[in-house]
Each structure stands twice: as C-alpha cells, then as structure tokens.
C-alpha cells in the first residue's frame, strides 16, 4: 500500500511550486489579465489535504487582494 502521507507531502510541494505559474499560463492562453477576472472558484475537497490547502489559500489570497468574490467547489464536481 502506498504511503499516503508521503504522497500528500509531494503533492503539496508540487502545488506550491506550480500554482502561480499555472494561473499565469492560463491567463496568457486565454489572452486575459487579472483585471478581467470578476470571481475565483477553487476546489476544497475531497482530496489530499495539503494540496487542497495550497490551492485554497492561493485562491483566497488572490480573492482578497483583488477584492473579488471567492467560491468553494467540491473537487469531484470541479472535474466534471
């Protein structure tokens, strides 16, 4: 059986490294800037807690900094 604690730690670290570049790339690909964003949605579970917390806190911080609404979404619904 895999070591889930170790997997969660690796996922969390990868999310920390990649969350900002992924957001920047998404904006570039969509030919948009943050000024065009009027709300932020982020998955909050179920899933690996550490990785979810990285995304959740990044989204909350961005929401507060930009003064735009923040919406939590079930991760399974987010995949759909």
Provide a short characterization of the protein structure:
The protein has 80 residues and is an alpha+beta fold.
Characteristics of this structure?
80 residues, alpha+beta, single chain, two-stranded parallel ribbon, Nucleotidyltransferase, domain 5
Structural features, described:
- By secondary structure, this protein is an alpha+beta fold.
- The protein has one domain (4-79): Nucleotidyltransferase, domain 5 (2-Layer Sandwich), CATH 3.30.420.40.
- Helix content is 61%, strand content 14%.
- It contains 3 helices and 2 strands, in the order αβαβα.
- A two-stranded parallel ribbon has the order 1-2.
- α2 links the parallel β1 (40-45) and β2 (70-74).
- α1 (4-29) runs parallel beside α2 (49-66).
- The mean pLDDT is 89.
Layout of strands and helices, then pairs:
Elements: H1 4-29, E1 40-45, H2 49-66, E2 70-74, H3 75-79
Parallel strand pairs: 1-2
The CATH homology group name? ATPase, nucleotide binding domain
Main sheet strand line-up: 1-2
Helix count from the secondary structure assignment:
3
Extract low-pLDDT stretches. Answer: none
Return the string of H and E elements.
HEHEH
Write down the CATH class.
Alpha Beta
**How far do the termini sit from each other?**
28 Å
Radius of gyration: 14 Å
Task: Give the overall silhouette.
Answer: globular
- Proportion of β residues? 5-15%
Structural class by SSE content: alpha+beta
What is the third-level CATH name, the topology? Nucleotidyltransferase, domain 5
> Fraction of residues in helices?
55-70%
Biggest sheet descriptor = 2 strands, parallel
What is the number of E strands?
2
State the CATH architecture.
2-Layer Sandwich
Number of domains: 1
Q: What does the average pLDDT come to?
A: 89
């Amino acid at each position: 059986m895999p070591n889930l604690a170790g997997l969660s730690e690796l996922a969390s670290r990868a999310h920390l490294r990649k969350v900002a570049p992924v957001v920047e790339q998404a904006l570039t690909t969509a030919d948009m800037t943050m000024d065009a964003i009027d709300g932020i949605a982020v998955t909050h579970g179920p899933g690996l807690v550490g990785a979810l917390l990285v995304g959740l806190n990044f989204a909350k911080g961005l929401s507060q900094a930009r003064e735009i609404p923040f919406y939590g979404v079930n991760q399974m619904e987010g995949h759909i």
